[in-house]
Amino acid sequence: DFNDPLFLHPSDTPEVNLVNEPLIGTKNYEVWSRAMMIALTTKNKLDFINGSCKKPEAHSPILHQWERCNAIVLSWIMNTVSKEIYNGIIYSTNAFTVWTDLRKIFN
């Protein structure tokens, strides 16, 4: 189902760069976050950063698909931040947590 946030299109790959200007800090956070929200909306992945698409229970049949989509969203975020910010989020495992932390730090 194309409307399911767990759907991955063949073009949804980790190396995709969704926005032109990387996040460098408070100077461009508002513009960067707006551009990312627009891009994630077009990819139907906004629910991963707004908390609507929560990680399923350990034995859920959709856990693996959720983890794949979450990893894709994490990679898209990491592709659009400065090297300094990248180094601070590389070990994160949840796109929602990374998005929330970036908002707290730079907004």
UniProtKB/TrEMBL annotation:
Residues 9-57 form the Retrotransposon Copia-like N-terminal domain. InterPro entries: Copia-like_N. This is UBN2_3 domain-containing protein. It comes from Cephalotus follicularis.
